[in-house]
Design a protein that fits this description.
cell membrane, two-stranded parallel sheet, transmembrane transporter activity, Growth Hormone, Chain: A, mainly alpha
């Protein structure tokens, strides 16, 4: 815009960054994962806190999840994807940080003027604030997930996204720890005063990171470069008989099935966390404060699982690894539905470990080989997060009925079953590899064409060796 301050971006001279050049841009991206991890950790605790303070039912309390995942991620992710396609990653990230900070600031007057007499109106105000925050987070997630995948070597896209997403987990367990002290302890257990101060701090963090992004020279990935990832690859046919990277967006079937898997996974993850405190207090003898602490332990388990999955993703094929994780998660979820007492709560904590790699792995599998559709495909995969708006109300209705919270955990079980179906199909139709296979990357995408051919990247220990291969003809 005329008269405005220019936004610093640095177009990539070569296909992707390697080595030390990756550290700064990935550090900036990690700060975004940290922001929404913290907000997500607070969301699950507010679910229970509002039940107590505002005297609402479990089903009503899931309104937070509905607006967060449905309003923000389902409705706003396509807008974010379109902005990203037209304006680039940096502008999209700044837009997301602005919305995020605005929504957090609005928590202050909403909490300040809330009364028990107008509790439903107050809860509606909190839902509106959460919606604005969610629009910001959906924008950030659309940009950051895609950027983490395309900025570096495609051979390590899954591991790189796993690592960035791990910091999401680090922040997410800090939220419940803060909540157990400021929301559930002493006189704070029955008021919303401290909600104001926590979210004011969140808003300040969002503004600080926005300033950092504004002045940083963030490497930008051009649309032409994204197209080259498909057009210059060895011509190949996917499991549906289509040339990889070609055709309209609605015919990218792997992406569509991955979107459904993401929808089911996030729905399962959100319901498991949203009703964790209810499960621990009803199915065992824990208080709300103790259960909030245990939720933070579960999120620590989730975080450890992400870092371990990062290491495993450099050894095993992502779809095979996720297939094993999904099988274990289904078995544990079944026990949660049937078990009682401390042992059942312990299994509920452990299942967070096996959830850990699902989101980034599904995202990586679903956005592979999209070429010119990469940015819009990223938006669609992030729309899958809207499963978090659909599953909680279903579980909340079951939990409020005579079946109770324990039986309601059959809802996330359904989600894990679909995830297993998707990754099993993907594994069988993509070579049935167990160990990570060598990746074929366009020579131009690696920063230098070699006779119009492609480069097969072989790994000798930690050393990458590029071998030129002539492009296949049709």
């Amino acid at each position: 815009m005329g008269g405005g301050v220019p936004i610093n971006t640095t177009p990539l001279a070569s296909g992707f960054l390697t080595g030390k050049a990756l550290i700064f841009p990935l550090s900036l991206v990690i700060s975004l994962f940290f922001l929404w991890g913290f907000s997500y950790g607070l969301l699950d605790v507010l679910n229970k806190h509002f039940q107590v303070v505002l005297d609402i039912t479990k089903l009503q309390s899931t309104g937070l999840q509905v607006v967060y995942f449905g309003g923000g991620y389902l409705l706003f992710s396509p807008i974010a994807a379109e902005v990203m396609k037209r304006k680039g990653y940096k502008v999209t990230i700044l837009m997301g940080l602005s919305l995020y900070s605005l929504g957090a600031i609005l928590f202050w007057p909403t909490a300040h003027f809330s009364t028990h007499e107008h509790r439903l109106a107050s809860f509606g105000g909190f839902c509106a604030c959460t919606l604005v925050i969610a629009c910001g987070l959906a924008t950030l997630e659309t940009a950051a997930n895609s950027y983490a995948v395309v900025i570096g070597d495609p051979a390590f896209a899954s591991a790189r996204l796993q690592f960035c997403q791990s910091w999401n987990g680090v922040a997410s367990f800090i939220g419940p720890l803060i909540a157990s002290k400021f929301f559930f302890s002493g006189k704070n257990a029955h008021n919303l005063t401290n909600v104001q101060f926590v979210y004011l701090a969140v808003a300040c963090a969002g503004v600080a990171i926005a300033v950092l992004f504004f002045f940083a020279k963030l490497p930008e990935v051009s649309e032409k470069m994204l197209e080259s990832t498909s057009s210059e690859e060895m011509l190949a046919i996917d499991e549906f008989g289509n040339e990889i990277g070609s055709g309209p967006l609605h015919k990218q079937y792997n992406m569509i099935f991955a979107f459904i898997a993401q929808f089911c996974y996030v729905g399962a993850q959100v319901t498991i966390a949203s009703f964790f405190i209810n499960y621990a207090t009803e199915n065992a003898t824990y208080t709300s404060a103790q259960a909030s602490n245990m939720l933070s332990y579960a999120l620590i388990t989730f975080t450890v699982g992400r870092f371990i999955a990062t290491a495993l993703a450099t050894i095993f094929q992502p779809d095979f690894m996720l297939m094993v994780y999904a099988i274990v998660a289904i078995a544990m979820n079944a026990y949660i539905c049937a078990g009682h007492g401390t042992s059942a709560v312990a299994v509920l904590i452990v299942i967070f470990f096996f959830e850990a790699p699902m989101y980034p792995t599904i995202f990586t599998l679903g956005t592979a080989n999209l070429g010119r559709h990469t940015r819009r495909g990223a938006g669609i995969l992030v729309m899958g997060v809207s499963g978090g708006a659909v599953f909680p109300p279903i579980q909340g209705a079951i939990a409020d009925s005579s079946a109770g919270t324990r039986i309601s955990y059959v809802v996330p079980l359904v989600g894990f079953v679909y995830v297993l179906g998707y990754v099993t199909f993907h594994w069988f139709t993509h070579g049935r590899h167990i160990l990570r296979v060598k990746d074929i990357v366009a020579a131009e995408f690696r920063g230098g064409a070699i006779g119009g051919g492609v480069v097969e990247t072989h790994y000798d220990g930690d050393k990458a060796v590029d071998v030129h291969v002539e492009k296949m003809s049709v």
